[in-house]
Every structure is written in structure tokens, then in C-alpha cells.
User: What shape does this take?
Amino acid sequence: MSGLAILIPVALFMGLCGLAFFFWAMHNDQFEDLEGAAHRVLIDDEAETSPDDEAI
Amino acid sequence: MTAALASRDLDVAMLCEDSRFVVPGMRCAGCISKIERGLAEIPGVVTARVNFSTKQVAVSHEPELGGDALLSAIEKLGFEAQLLADNPLAEDRGDTERLLRALAVAGFGMMNIMLLSVSVWSGAIGVTKDLFHWLSALIAVPVIAYSGRPFFASAAMALRYMRTNMDVPISIGILLATGLSLYETATGGAHAYFDGAVMLIFFLLTGRVLDGMMKDRAREGISALLKKTATGAMIVQDDGTTRWTKAEDILPDMIMHVAAGENLAADGIVMKGRSGFDISMLTGESDPQMRGEGDSVLAGTLNLTGPVNVRVTAAGQDTSISDIARLMDEAGQHRSFYIRVSDRASRYYAPAVHSLALLSFIGWMIAGAGWHQSLLIAVAVLIITCPCALGLAVPAAQVVASGALMRQGVMVKDGSALERLAQADRVVFDKTGTLTMGAALPENLDSLSPVQKAVALTLAQSSRHPVSQALRKALVQEEIMPLSEIEDISEVPGEGVNGVWQGKSVRLGRAEKAMQQITTELTIGDDLQIIYLNDELRPDARLAVDLFSKMGLSASILSGDKLEAVAPVARKLGITAQASACPEDKVEAITRLTQSGCNVLMVGDGLNDGPALAAAYVSIAPGSASDVGQQAADAVFTSDSLLPTAIAVKVARKTMQNVRQNFALAIGYNILAVPLAIAGMVTPLIAAIAMSMSSLIVVGNALRLRGAAK
Assistant: This one.
């Protein structure tokens, strides 16, 4: 019984974290291009350092 | 250093312009990186981002870099592209997003409450049970307050106008269940229905989200087809120079200089020059009309062959196009009276459910069960009958069906369009651009040698003239490769494209004689070849008409074209036709059919079809249609073949059949569950199982529609 005092808040907290993460993802347009995301994994990224980065 | 860089970046970001292009040819990861990297290398481009799902590229660039420059850059990368106008259909997607947020919260609440409920059902008693009920209440009340808002708002709106819709019984059920559960929790009662109330919201929101996603998807697809039309003209100034003037700033008596391949921005009279005009969008007439000095020309028509100067007689609101827009507004008003099938069902359902709950309350009171016990049973009846499955039945079937149709190239704008498509029992076609391709196709390509074809393609692809575009499309389809060694390619507007190939001068352009049929001339050195173009029937047109008649829809043609042009098409398809119909005639013909009791499906594309599309019970436009046509129509098909129009009706009927099955399932479930509820034998556990089972069955049944369009 005393375990519940810890376990239930932990479970709720984890659920809320998931919910917050989902909201964050939606706000950042993570679901805008689901098909594209699947394809982007396959792009070889050579020479991805932009000149700006080198300047700094 | 870093600070200076940052501030420069900021300046750039502030000055940036955004342009969106639609690139239908993207197929793989290679295309994504090719476009993004290719564009990023162009000076002036800040970022380029591909959205693969919508086949669009968003480019953020410096204002000096025009949309046309970017367009040709994308074309150089090997992709066909179109600049997207500011989207007139882009109603904010906020609605679906809000629903999705509510759904996420409801899902979170449902899972956590269920976790606690399962413990109670498994036999938690005493303090533990009370604690769990209190915890459930703590989660449920804010979740219901947040996620239930879409239902509460809609129910409140309906009640304010003394009407009832699906949301009224839902809201009453949820609020009563929550209130009673709170009371039970406070008094240490045995049952709390928090899980049921939240689960109800979750399932119903799923239906709403599906409905919203279906609308968004179709909107995006259709807006990607809307072309940026000419919204202005080159106006000849007093000193003889020309200046680009926006359509709304054009006044009567100005002189427009209209090059070949340009749309007219205003009505007027030709002052100088002679050219063929494509007026099919306005009237449906397929042959180009020759217009010389003193002849009048209309806004929205396309100048095909030569440059002309036109004195403006009517501009802006006074043009013949604006008349069509007004006619369309009037014709489209009946649409808002259509009542969706789910709302029609709830008209009978809501009063039945409410009186059932009330009767069980009164019944148990008379039987002497006490008001507390009676109220508990009444709430159980409300929860068990809440249209969980009903709320899912319609959107689930429609979203699966529209997905199946989309894979076949038909985009249905919303669920109500699918419902109306299923009820169509008469089909009326426009001719030009609908039964036929609308664009001229080269007829005698076979008589060209491979070398001639390659030269023709190379020249054709450097011109935007519609004839060149038609030729290019046909040649690309034959997998002809352009020659890279043609030099000095230049276009003389209204005359043709010239170049030099292996020392010989080559030319693709206007034939010497101005002819009624569209022709173009290919010369290589002294070699001359005339290419004839003709507007052909869409592939599968006959098949589509046959399928329509098999489904009991008799077809006819309603065209603005001349009888001589309509008759052969009608004969080929074996259907009746009415020719030379102006937009008013078309609306009248549709209205006449409607009054005789038909639900008319109108298939048309042109500006002249706009009012008829709006007046018909339901309408479909091809993807090549004018913007007006696409906006007026309920569905758009993107393939060349006409068959998808018939398939759309077939799928719509299957969908309605599926919806009816779902209704039957939901009602069958109620017949089983309601007696239990009235008898007072329903516990929260039974309610939870019954609700999720019926919803799952309904969704499973809807999924059978996935292959419906094959």
C-alpha cells in the first residue's frame, strides 16, 4: 500500500511527460512530412558542414 | 565576429520572401536531396525544404530572386514544377490540430484512469477503492473539461438555436456521468463512471480527427493543383513603352499588349495584330477562334498564336468572368441545406435515447428503487447508448474510402461529398476538357523521324506556348531525349522557336497560313514537316460511361461547343447531347433535371461550367480544370482517364453501404446492451467492454473499404 504513494505519482508523471512530448512534437511540425522523414534517412550526408560553421 | 554574423543572419531572415512550389515528380530520397542541395547552392536562396508528403518545396529567398528564376532552377534540376499561389482553400488546419490535442489528452486520461479502474474492478475495497476513485476524479475532471470542449461547444450552439445534434446526447451523457461519479466518490459509493466518460470522449474524438484529416488531405492535394493565373497585363504607355499592370488597376480604354501564350486580363477589342484565341474555358468551344482588328476578345481566354494589342472595354468586376462568378454564388446556395447522414441519424437517435433514460428513471422510481438508484441506472443507460460506434461509423468508413480513392487519383473534398456522390442517379458531362483532354494532342507524330522528334522536343521545351507544351508532353511520353547540341535557341513571340543544329537552322513555329485547326511547322534546314494537333477523347471515356449506366446513372453531354464538334463525341459514346449552351443554359438544364427528381452529378472543368458545377447535386472536376471549376467541384480527379469519376460513385455507394452496416451493428449492440442497462445490471466494467468492443468492430468493418477503389 505504501508503494502506491510513490508508484502512482511516478506513473502519472511519466504519462504527463509523454503528453508534453507529443505537444512539443506537434508544435514543432514533426508530423508535417511523415513520408519525407522515412525517405530522409536514406540521404547520404556528405559535406554537411556549412561554410558559416567553419568561419566560427 | 559571431555577433556580427548573427546580426547579418537576422537581417537576411527579415528580408526573406517565401515561395512554395509543387513538384509532382518527386519519388525518392535522391530527389529530396537533389532539390534541396541544388536550390541551396543558388545565390540568394536562404533555405529550401522539401515536404515529400505534399510534394512541395518551400524556399526562403531574398526578394531580388524572383519566383520564375527559382522555377527554372528547379526545372534545370530535372523536375517539373509549378509556383503555388497563396492558397485560397487554405482554411487554417488549426481545427484538426486542436482536435488532435484534445484526443491526446483524452488518451492520456483514459489510460491512467483505466489503470486505476482495473484495480477497483479486480476487487480493491475500502480506503484503497476510495483513494482510486478520488485519483480518477482528479485526472478525469480536467481531462473532460479540456477534451470535451468540442462537443460541449457544438451542443451549446445547437441548443441555442433550439435544435439537437449528435453532440447534445453526448454532452448530456458525459456531464451526467461525471457529476454522478463525483457524487459516488464523495459518498464512498461502489461505482464510478470516470473511465466510461473519458473513453467515450476518446472514441468520439477519434472520429472527429479522422474526419478533419480527410478534409485537410484533400484540400492540400487540390490546392497543389491551383495554378497561378495571369493577374495583370502589359499596358502600353503614352511613350510607346509597356509596363506590367495588375488586373485590378486596369481601366477601360487602356491598351494591353498580349503576347502569345498569355491569358487576357480584361475584355477588349483587338487594335493591332491577328491571332487565334483559345476560348474553351469560357464557352467550351474547342476550336481556336481567329480574331483580327476590330473583333472583341474576352478576359480569361488564352492568346495562342501571335501578339496582339487590345483596347480594354471592360475590366475587373465588369468582365464576363465576373458574371460567371456571380452566377456561381447564386447557384451554390442550395448546398448548405444538405444534412449529413450522421446528423440525420442523430435526429431520431437523440430523442429515443433521452426518453429511454428518462423512462427507466421514472420506471425505477415507481418500482420504489429510490432516486439515487434510479439515477444511477438512468446514467448507465445514457452511457451505454451514447453513440460511440455511431460517431465512429461515418467518419471511419469515409476516411478509409477517401484514402482508397486518393490512391486512384480522386480527391474528395469532404464526407458530405461522398454521401451525395452515392445518391447521384444522373450524370452530365461537359465536353471540352472533361470528355476530351482539353489540350491539343499531336495527331501525326508517327510520320516524324526520330531525329525530327528530338529536334522538335528540344525546341518545344524552351517555349511556354501551349502548342509547344502539348508537343513536349507527347514527345516525352514517347521517351524521346532532347538534343544538347542545338545552339542559339531563341523564341520570337507569336512566331516560333529558332535554333541552329549542326550548322543547319531549325525552327518550330507557326505555320505560314493561319489555319482553323491548330498546326505547327517543324523545319530542319530545308526539310519541312507540318504537325497537326487535335483534342482527343479522354482514355476510358467509353468505359466510364458504360460503368455509369451499369450503376443506373444515365449520362448526357452539356456543352458550350458547336453542334458539329459535340456530335461526333456523343456518337462515339452513345449518349445524348445538348450543344451551344452558355453558362446560364447549363444551370437551367441542371435545375430542370433536379426539379424532375434527379440527383445530378456534374462533371466539368471550365469557367463556363462553374455555375453548373455549383448548381448540381454533386460535382467532379478534372485536375486540369480551371481554378474556378476545381473550387466549385466536390471532388477532383487527377488522372487523364475518365474512369475515376465512375469509380468515385461506385466507392461512394460502397461507403454508404458500409456506413449502413455500421449503423446496424451499433443498433444491434444497443438492442443487446440497453435491456441490461435498464435492468440495472450494467457496471462500469461492462460499459467499458461494450463500448470498446462496438467501436473496434465498427472500425474493423470500415477498414474493409481499403480495396474498394480497385
User: Anything to note?
Assistant: The longest helix of chain B spans residues 643-678. Residues 415 and 637 of chain B are 16 Å apart (CA to CA).
